[in-house]
Hints:
Layout: E1 9-14, H1 19-34, E2 42-48, H2 54-68, H3 76-83, E3 86-90, H4 94-110, E4 117-121, H5 128-137, E5 148-152, H6 160-171, E6 179-181, H7 189-199, E7 213-221, H8 230-255, H9 264-277, H10 286-289, E8 290-296, E9 298-300, E10 303-305, E11 323-328, E12 340-345, E13 352-359, H11 368-371, E14 379-385, E15 389-397, E16 405-413, H12 423-433, H13 442-460, E17 468-470, H14 477-484
Parallel strand pairs: 1-2, 1-4, 2-3, 4-5, 5-6, 7-12, 8-17
Antiparallel strand pairs: 7-13, 8-11, 9-10, 11-12, 13-14, 14-15, 15-16
6-O-phosphono-beta-D-glucopyranose binds next to loops.
Amino acid sequence: MIEVGEASSAFVIFGGTGDLSKRKLVPALYQLAKQGALSPSLAIVGTSRTHLSDQEFRNELHDALVRHSRTQPIDEAIWDALASRMRWVTTANDDGYAELGRVLDHLAVEKDTQGNRLFYLATPPSAYIPIITAIGRHSLASAASGWKRIVIEKPFGSDLTSARALSAALSLTFSEAEIFRIDHYLGKETVQNILVLRFANSIFEPLWNRRYIDHVQITVGECLGVEERANYYEQAGAMRDIVQNHLLQLLALVAMEPPASFGADAVRDEKVKVLRALRPIHPDEVAERAVRAQYGPGYIEGQRTAGYRQDEGVAPTSDTETYVALKCFIDNWRWQDTPFYLRTGKRLPRRSTEIAIQFHGAPHQMFGREASAGLEPNTLVLRLQPDEGISLTLGAKVPAQGVRIRSVNMEFMYGFDTGSPDSYETLVLDALQGDATLFMRRDEAEEQWSFVDPILRGWRAGNSTLPRYDAGTWGPTEADLLVARDGRAWRKP
Ligand code: BG6
């Protein structure tokens, strides 16, 4: 059983019956309740413009939980206890917000939330600023007699200017320590394990630098397309959807210096230093260092798949990228001139997120070229999903007379019998307990946009083409060339 922290609170979900609430937040709250990790005085308030009764709200969430819970069947007694703490308030106008204020005051007494208030924005991004402004106008946060916090989903803005505007709007009501910007990748067990691998072991650190590492490849590959999110994705594209947040966070975790502690600011200070040291890709450099592409029709696991432009809700002339590959450098003492190749794409052959650290080859091949023909460079691969684990490629002698070397893999499968919590379980609990280590600070989000904006500008200025790749392949030839020009090749995950 997890120890109960300062989690007594009103948990207000804006977009209470939206997709995120149904697929992630409520299943996370249910799992936490099941583990005994929620304070008995947590009250959940759902809200949006929709008119619902408390019971209708509970029923909708119950149906969603039955569909999305990671443990089945659901335990109805736990659900009933959770549902009894749920309220619905309609916030279609100022009267609705005033009512929300009254309900929160009332819950402080009725459910003993101790006057703590956590506001969770699980709405489309266009609603963020109107909601934040309404929270301020109705003093919903300042009236909290305990602590107040706000959790905000990605995308955090659509460029540096809008990210700054969003932070400025938030800062009128919340201090930076009260703002929890979500990147759900940071809640993944295997992503946190990057820090454990690097900093709880002593054998890697001496090798973790430009002297021993030839290059790093980070892949976030998905076989899914844009599903029902074409509206959002048409505006975002792979750069804003994955590179600006998940991929750059993974890069920062791999490349950062050891923090003094696992405290929120210690970790985030080190990550932000890496982001600041990223060598910019100027608009006129996009042709050499950045590739974007869009999937056309193809086959995934033998099934015919439509191209992006044929997907529902996508403009037939859309030039939104569904694939990005970048060649990045971190200009600091540890990493100078070591390429970090990043790539992400939708409709790739399979789902695979991994970080591959490729070491330099042995300086002298004393066994001769022929014996070493089957030898690959030592590579440490952190597989984040699926098949979570770590593997290390080593050269081994093939049993026979004479010497013939082949590469073999030393494997660790990340299979603990405790099972892995979903990232939202971790992040919701951390937010309730006020631990911001796994959330993005304002400066991180802004540095990420500072890196991404000039590339997007270069693309908008027409400084590169938008090649197609067939659905079910690992991306366009242009991406292969990006690494082939350096005498390297992408791994096949
Ligand atoms: C989200 C993106 O942030 O991450 C989605 O908006 C993407 O487009 C998803 O599919 C991938 O997350 P995961 O946890 O499935 O790797």
